Amino acid sequence: MTDVTSDPRHRPLGEILSPKTAEPFVKAFGIHTVGDLLEHLPRRYLRRGELTDLRDLRPGEHATVSVDVTGLNSRYLQHRRLNLLEVSARSGQEEMRLSFFSRRKLTWKLEVGKPAMFSGKVEVFRDKLQMTNPEVDTEGLGEDFADTLVPIYPATAKLESKNIGKAIGVALDMVGPLPDPLPPALRKTYGLMGIDDAYRQVHRPVDAAQAKAARERLKWDEALVLQVALAQRRLAAERAPAVPRSPREDGLLSAFDDSLPFTLTAGQLRVGRQISADLVRSFPMQRLLQGEVGSGKTVVALRAMLTVVDSGGQAALLAPTEVLATQHLRSLRRLLGDLAEAGTLGAAAAATNVVLLTGSQPMAARRKALLAAADGSAGIVVGTHALLTENVQFADLGLVVVDEQHRFGVEQRDLLRERAEAAGRNPPHLLVMTATPIPRTVAMTVFGDLETSTLTELPAGRTPIRSHVAPTRLQYRMWERVREEVAAGHQAFVVCPRIGEKASEDDEPGYRVDEDGAAKRPPLAVVDVVPRLEGGPLAGLSLDVLHGRLTAEEKDEAMARFVRGETAVLIATTMVEVGVDVPNATVIVILDADRFGISQLHQLRGRVGRGTAASWCFLATDADEGSPVHQRIEAVAGTLDGATLARLDLKTRREGDILGAAQSGRRRSLRLLNLLTDEPLLVNARAEAETLVRSDPELEGQPLLAAAVEDRIGEQRAAYLEKA
Ligand code: ADP
Ligand code: MG
Fold first, then answer.
1. Separation of alpha carbons 561 and 323, rounded Å
2. Is 412 in the pocket of ligand 1 (CB under 6 A)?
3. Which of 59, 227, 309, 579 is the most exposed place for a label (fewest CB within 10 A)?
């Protein structure tokens, strides 16, 4: 058997480099061990003599370029007492300048007409790319070396790519053959090279094909470790006990179904059946419900909760914000009518109670709600995620529904289970709901331990939302439309990227900072927009504001007035992004739409079109036509299909945004896998992991793989605890 502890990857880096040389690696990249170092992979490779495309350089980044020297000019700067050497260089049509300042005389082996490599921070000076005092490398640029690939590593000013390459070279020379965590049979099936070759070839490839094959092999390590961890979770979940919950014939659920003012869609019924089938099993349901914005997830969740109440248990509904929790309380009570009024005169026989529990509610109300949760008189408790962490007591919590939370990660799910175990109870069934369509690869990674259901159709009778990109010159027409809708008795949202009136510009999450094509001014703010609209295009209409700096009570009142129809136009931040359900609102104006991401725009748009009346969405922007940001907005205006937009979003966002907080730390969980292009590999890895774990749950026959999985879980835990 292989001894895991002797794996050279676990050796501290300071042991093979000097501790002093190892130090910058920790500081810059959190690299502590030989393994960490070997996993610091080249960003790309430069062929010596092959010139860099200077158009790819971004100001501010640290880069290594290979260019032809076209001019040398040295001067002495009398007033600064410095030698200045100015090097002009070119690659194809593009030119750049390299400036060296020094007290000593500069003696680089640079020659006009010869290639050279420079590493440094990319700057723009007088419209021209330049570097100041870059590192110079003219070694090996002769013809003999024309064919070697130079790895270019993610680097910093203090830790140059070249030095990282050197350290990796030392490590590779010093450590013996690395033991392989992938089972040989699997390697054979997929034609993968051994791990030792993979590291050597990814860092010192002979040619591009070799580098690619090495990377492919390393991707497999990443995918398999991830999928094994998920397969183990699925297996553990199946082995955990849970209380089966079945509805009563003449209970709440059937009374509720009889009272519904509309017919459920085929999708709602189908998902309902899947959920009931899960709930009667003796291990906890772990289901993800994806549903297009406005597809009616709340009713599906409510029916699941009623099933549990019918069986004598309780359900908790968790929303991402207090505003949303309060909204849910109202809509659940409205949907349930007298079925939510147990204990009052004239309540239905099967009735229960729905209570709200939030951090900012008045003490007396909170105490009452806590009591109702603890003595079981509240069948449904609505709150925010704080419900989980605050250790609220339930008489018999049978189901937790998490709304609009595609970032309800593995750690939160663990917490839920651990809480139950600590209290000596069985873990509750779990239903996670999201309106952000999740591409298959994301479902297989982030939610790989959940089963998924999807609601694709919208309830009958909806008119598709009409979306328009509104450039500044046409915005008067947009405001006219708002006035017309209000005149017809409808309501409108106006969304701004910022609250405003504060030094910090990033007071509300969710808007993007400067991008190519975006307007060169601070994003519009609620507090600035309100007076402009009041005194201008929306004069005479009743306006109200909603944003994160209001107190919980103020937010609540603003939302309640809007729900009651007392406010015509609600001017808000992305606070209204998810979940807000006011079917009478028929127009949404998103100002500075270029500051939002694709999924966000789609979510915001979903605040309208929730009733039978026709609805409008205006994406207002000053962005240059044809620019990438403008194209992004046009894409949103061009389709109402969330799945299409989700795929597009995956292309334009960094994966960390999608994977959520726990995964987006400095040492990310997905280093090599690309959720857009690696679907076949992920599918294979998932199948292999499932087979491995079913036959050997603890991976006793695969100690190295088991250790790699442990490492990964430990790393994630650490990242999560750091955030918490
Ligand atoms: P989401 O899936 O975005 O959370 P909601 O659950 O808030 O959507 O539902 C959107 C609106 O559609 C709500 O006003 C809800 O009452 C209504 N609704 C839900 N199901 C149906 C249905 N089958 N027929 C008609 N309206 C429905
Ligand atoms: Mg919802």
1. 13
2. no
3. 59
Give the tens place of pLDDT for each residue, 99-118. Answer: 998 887 766 678 888 888 88
Of the two residues 75 and 6, the one the predictor is more confident about is 75
Say if CB 73 and CB 86 are below 8 A apart.
yes
Question: pTM higher than 0.85 for the full model?
Answer: no
Q: What is the pLDDT of residue 364?
A: 94
Over residues 192-209, the mean pLDDT reads 94
Answer yes or no: is the C-beta of 262 below 6 A from any ligand 1 atom: yes
For ligand 1, say whether the CB of 298 is within 6 Å of any of its atoms: yes
- Which strand (E) or helix (H) includes residue 115? strand 115-121
Alpha helices, DSSP H, located in 100-251: 161-174, 184-189, 195-203, 208-239
**Ligand 1 pocket test target in 257, 259, 262, 268 with most atoms within 8 Å of CB:** 262
pLDDT confidence of residue 92: 83
Q: Ligand 1, atom 23: nearest CA belongs to which residue?
A: 264
Task: Give the number of the atom of ligand 1 that is nearest the alpha carbon of residue 331.
Answer: 16
pLDDT given at position 505: 47
Collapsing DSSP to helix, strand or coil, 412 comes out as helix
Q: Whose CA is nearest to atom 18 of ligand 1?
A: 296
Angle separating helix axes 195-203 and 208-239, nearest 10 degrees: 130
Which of 298, 401, 582, 602 to mutate to test ligand 1, by most ligand atoms within 8 A of the CB atom?
298
- Mean confidence (pLDDT) of the chain: 86
CB-based contact 508:498 (threshold 8 Å):
yes
Where does the pLDDT of residue 145 fall: very low under 50, low under 70, confident under 90, or very high at 90 and above?
Answer: very low
Both tokens of residue 497? 């990227």
Handedness of CA 172, 175, 177, 183 (dihedral sign): negative
Rounded to the nearest whole angstrom, what is the distance from the C-alpha of residue 700 to the centroid of ligand 1? 49
Site to probe by mutation for ligand 1, drawn from 610, 612, 615 as the one with most ligand atoms within 8 Å of Cβ, is 610
Q: Which fold has domain 44-152?
A: OB fold (Dihydrolipoamide Acetyltransferase, E2P) (2.40.50)
DSSP result, 227-295? HHHHHHHHHHHHHS--------TTSHHHHHHHH-SSPPPHHHHHHHHHHHHHHTSSS--EEEEEE-TTS
- CB of residue 435 inside a 6 A radius of ligand 1: yes
Cα separation, 275 vs 273, in Å, equals: 5
Tell me the CATH class for 465-639. Answer: alpha beta
Q: Report domain extents, the chain.
A: 44-152, 252-455, 465-639
